[in-house]
Design goal:
The protein is α/β, with parallel strands linked by helices. The protein folds into 5 domains: about 210 residues, Arc Repressor Mutant, subunit A (Orthogonal Bundle), CATH 1.10.10; about 55 residues, no CATH class; about 200 residues, 3-Layer(aba) Sandwich (Rossmann fold); about 80 residues, no CATH class; about 100 residues. It contains 31 helices and 18 strands. A 6-stranded mixed sheet has the order 12-8-11-10-9-17, sandwiched between helices. Strands 3-2-1-7 form a 4-stranded mixed sheet. The longest helix is centred in the first third of the chain and has 31 residues. The two termini are about 50 Å apart.
């Protein structure tokens, strides 16, 4: 899902904090794209006239401002004499009160000479929220993704679109000016979003916002060029060509001119691109529902405060805690996306995984691997300022360093006397060098699902917090509650709770509008427990089923009548229903990807599934569009996604992928027949055992895990012993113990087939 941000109210005078999102109750006025008024969740429609609606809209757009009665009377009834106009104004104000449900407080405050919208009343106005979201989205020295996406969601069309008052020239002049001002504000926000997602390599999201931008500026060539480029990068060459033709015809018919040379050159370059004979027709691609990030204002504020302290020159750590499905990872990734848009920041990502082999220093290995990949891309001489003996020590966890630096000698064994100090010091030295090197920048270490990490990884974090103090290094981690970490000012814990009903209503309203929101809320809240993941998967299931359909000719979605979710709609059931709707070939790829591990690539899918590369390409594209998988990004920095842009132009076969959530992968894995699952583990094992293939720095762990899952106990025993010895050599006893237990289990399954030398080796390790 796209990182869509939380909606905030307009600040009160002098207030600097972000107010909570508006609830479903109170008076809600939507003026962007039309005129809708809601009170306590019910539409208000019995207005006496269009001028009564116009009065409410005008006051709502100036919430907190007081107008003289003469000004308002002359604005809406210029054809009448002053006394008659003031009488009509009194009638309109009375009608506003009588139109609302009985017992509702009047939104209009008046005196003998003035009127205003009550600043103390519970009134939510989309124009005010939109403008505040754009303001916050452009604050803090850069862009804030949360608020810009909120603004894009709120801007459903021009202010009071289709609204007209006869003989009210001053009102019409005000309306046209406000429409233009708000439209330009929306254009600016969309331009920032398009550029942001282009730089991050997330071209489908960029394409979505580029389409929105072109719809607002159909005759402007720059947005159309952005749309064409993004369409090409997203694998939609035909669509890019069609967009040029639309522009050419429109410019000819409307203005009598041809496209600019820059636009024609882009078109010619796209024409010269190699065409895929199997490329689909350029139908309009519908991107699935973009679920907004809501109800997390307090957590975002805590992240901002922790980051502010890091920028002050001290190492810091923030731990986002909560049970599975609460959106911990999405919250952090969304915040880091905004962070890298604001300033030059390097982000290295590592994680711990279920349905995966135990790995000594697992998340730290991934962090180091990301640093090595970043250095290889950004520096002619990777880690040029780091002593070779330090790099040799680091190569224990990242053997790929030796491919970049042939001058490294093999390090001596870690001993109980020296302990892990040399390895820990090497990790701290290299991470510190990333902050001090050419183009220095704050460094963010993002560690996902830290509760699954081995004890040695937690020891490394404690060491880094002590040794990197004084450097702008920020450790951001997610975990289930209760993870033991050192107490102190450097560690901040942020607890996430389930979403309240008001937040679920906010999501539903953003998707289908006020009128259909209650029906969607009932489907989303049922058995979801307020878990954002459960809410999101219900939305995806409704989209898969066609129950959520794009609104004809405008933004938003329509909930079809009688829409339901599968019986017993827990996450496993929803995932099973979504899998059933996929073509059989795509379903096989999803199963293979779930078995392969936390991450996978298309080569593995093609080899393991014995499929043609084109079939894998198409299947992966479907899984991406259905929000089942996403690209795996181990590192990124501000504006540093150009390499991914190149990979996109070469097709989806490049790069790594992962499921959108570990629980989705687990549901797909469990849905697979156990016998078939065992066979797939065996097929992947054959690929990994090929000479020269090193998919990662922990090949032995993968081989041991797949061998055991495939029931190939002789191989499982051999590789488990190898993995145990490697963990023991790294002084990671908890991981070594787990591999010893698996070796003992494999030995028991083999019985007399195991030779005495293997038994002796196992006894030595266990002792």
């Amino acid at each position: 899902m796209v990182e869509a941000g939380p909606v905030s109210r307009r600040r009160a005078a002098g207030e600097t904090r972000e107010a909570p999102a508006a609830e479903a109750g109170g008076l809600r006025v939507r003026l962007l794209g039309g005129c809708e008024v809601w009170c306590d969740g019910r539409p208000v429609e019995r207005f006496e006239s269009q001028k009564v609606r116009a009065l409410l809209a005008y006051l709502a757009c100036h919430h907190g401002r007081t107008f003289t009665r003469d000004h308002l009377a002359g604005l809406f009834w210029p054809e009448r004499d002053p006394e008659a106009a003031r009488h009509a104004l009194r009638q309109a104000a009375y009608n506003l009160k009588s139109t609302l449900p009985p017992g509702t407080r009047s939104p209009v405050l008046g005196s003998y000479n003035s009127l205003q919208l009550d600043p103390g009343a519970d009134i939510w106005v989309d124009v005010a929220v939109f403008e505040e979201a754009v303001r916050l989205g452009r604050s803090r020295g850069g862009i804030d993704l949360h608020h810009l996406t909120t603004a894009a969601q709120l801007y459903r069309g021009e202010l009071l679109s289709g609204f007209f008052l006869r003989d009210c020239e001053a009102f019409e002049e005000w309306l046209v000016a406000e429409q233009e001002r708000l439209r330009e504000t929306a254009v600016d926000a969309l331009r920032l979003l398009v550029e942001h997602y282009r730089l991050r390599g997330e071209h489908r999201f960029g394409l979505y916002y580029a389409r929105r931008l072109v719809a607002l500026e159909p005759l402007s060539e720059e947005p159309r060029r952005d749309l064409m480029r993004l369409a090409l990068l997203a694998g939609r060459r035909s669509f890019a060509l069609v967009e040029y033709e639309k522009l050419r015809v429109m410019l000819r018919d409307e203005l009598g001119v041809e496209p600019l040379q820059e636009t024609r050159s882009l078109y010619d370059s796209i024409l010269r691109e190699k065409s895929d004979p199997g490329e689909p027709a350029p139908e309009v691609e519908v991107l699935g529902p973009l679920v907004p990030l809501v109800g997390r204002e307090a957590a975002l504020a805590a992240l901002r405060e922790s980051w502010r302290q890091v920028l002050g020159g001290r190492v810091g750590m923030v731990l986002v805690e909560g049970k599975d499905g609460l959106g911990k990872t999405r919250l952090v990734k969304s915040f880091l996306g905004s962070l890298t848009a604001e300033r030059h920041v390097r982000v290295l990502k590592g994680g711990s995984h279920e349905l995966a082999p135990p790995v000594a220093y697992g998340p730290i290995r991934e962090i180091i691997a990301g640093a090595v990949a970043e250095e290889a891309q950004l520096s002619a001489v990777p880690f040029a300022g780091v002593p070779v003996e330090v790099l040799a020590e680091l190569a224990r966890l990242a053997p790929e360093i030796r491919e970049l630096r042939a001058d490294l000698a093999p390090p001596g064994p870690l001993t109980d006397d020296a302990g892990r100090e040399p390895l820990f010091a090497a990790i701290a030295c290299c991470l510190g060098a990333l902050c001090r090197g050419a183009g220095p920048a704050p460094l963010v270490l993002f560690l996902d699902d830290l509760h699954l990490a081995d004890r040695s990884s937690l020891d490394v974090l404690e060491y880094l917090l002590a040794r990197l103090d004084g450097l702008p290094v920020w450790i951001v981690a997610t975990a289930r509650p209760g993870l033991p970490l050192p107490d102190g000012e450097a560690v901040c814990r942020v607890a996430l709770e389930p979403l309240p009903s008001t937040a679920v209503h906010e999501i539903a309203t953003a998707l289908v509008g006020e009128g259909e929101a209650p029906g969607l809320v009932s489907l989303l809240e049922e058995r979801s427990g307020g878990l954002p993941l459960a809410v999101t998967e219900r939305i995806n299931a409704l989209w898969d089923d066609g129950a959520l359909a794009p609104r004809e000719g405008e933004e938003g979605w329509v909930l079809q009548q009688g829409s339901t979710l599968p019986e017993g709609d827990d996450l496993d059931t929803l995932c099973a229903a979504r899998l059933a709707r996929l073509p059989s070939s795509v379903r096989r790829l999803a199963y293979l990807a779930a078995v392969a591990g936390p991450t996978f690539d298309t080569e593995l899918l093609a080899r393991g599934g014995d499929e043609h590369a084109a079939v894998v390409d198409i299947g992966l594209e479907i899984l991406l569009k259905r929000w089942l998988v996403r690209r795996h990004v181990p590192w990124w920095e501000s504006g540093g996604r150009q390499r991914d842009a190149v990979l996109w132009t070469q097709g989806t076969r490049r790069g790594g992928f992962e499921f959108v959530h570990p629980r989705v992968r687990a549901a797909v894995y469990r849905h697979l027949n156990p016998l078939r699952r065992q066979i797939l583990h065996g097929e992947i094992l054959v690929i990994l055992e090929e000479p020269g293939r090193e998919p990662s720095g922990h090949l032995r762990d993968l081989l041991a895990w797949h061998a055991a899952a495939a029931g190939q106990w002789e191989k499982a025993l051999a590789w488990s012993l190898e993995a145990a010895e490697e963990a023991r050599a790294l002084l990671a006893p908890d991981v070594a113990f787990r591999w010893i237990r698996q070796a003992e289990y494999a030995l028991a399954r083999l019985g007399d087939k195991a030779g005495p030398e293997v038994r002796t080796r196992l006894r030595a390790l266990a002792g």
